[in-house]
Amino acid sequence: MNQARTRAFVALGANIGNPAAQLAGALDALDAAGVLVAVSGVYRSAPIGPEQPEFLNLVAELAISEGPYELLARCQALETAAQRVRRERWGPRTLDVDVLLFGDVQMRDPELAIPHPRLRERRFVLDPLAELAPELVTLGELAAVADQDCERIGSVELLRRLAAGSTAADQD
Predict the structure, then answer these.
(1) Is 96 labeled as catalytic in the residue annotation?
(2) 98 annotated active-site
(3) Which of 44, 86, 96, 108 is catalytic?
(4) What is the pLDDT of residues 63-108, one digit of tens each?
(5) Which of 74, 59, 63 is nearest to 103 (CA)?
(6) Which is the catalytic residue, given 28, 74, 86, 98?
(7) What are 41-66's pLDDT values in tens digits?
């Protein structure tokens, strides 16, 4: 008998180490776990907070048979595997994986807030989320963040080429 699965979305970002390889590795782990459904394009965005390198960002759609706290633990395990160190709020990171949405769940506690509290304030989250689930993002929300420095640079295939060290200037 098939266990019911919940539609969930996570945001992934990285800006130090080898961001493309770290994002690709996280996607591979999600795929190997059998939860990855779809992946947005790859976006380049300016950092929020202290001066640091630009980020690569994307959103992944998942089908989850576990609960929201188990998904949070999965996200934290991906960050640990990428050797993420938390030194300062909004600081540079090898990998950041945030739970954005988990079905229709709405919750706020010190450990986990769903929907993500800044989901509607970040273009680097809204643009890729709109690619995967346009019904979840309004034109007004997109317009409200249009001034933020963020651009789609290619597909997940570009991410894999960057992760492999390709120096090809072509972007898809």
Answers:
(1) yes
(2) yes
(3) 96
(4) 999 999 999 999 999 988 877 666 666 667 889 999 999 999 999 9
(5) 63
(6) 98
(7) 999 999 887 788 999 999 999 999 99
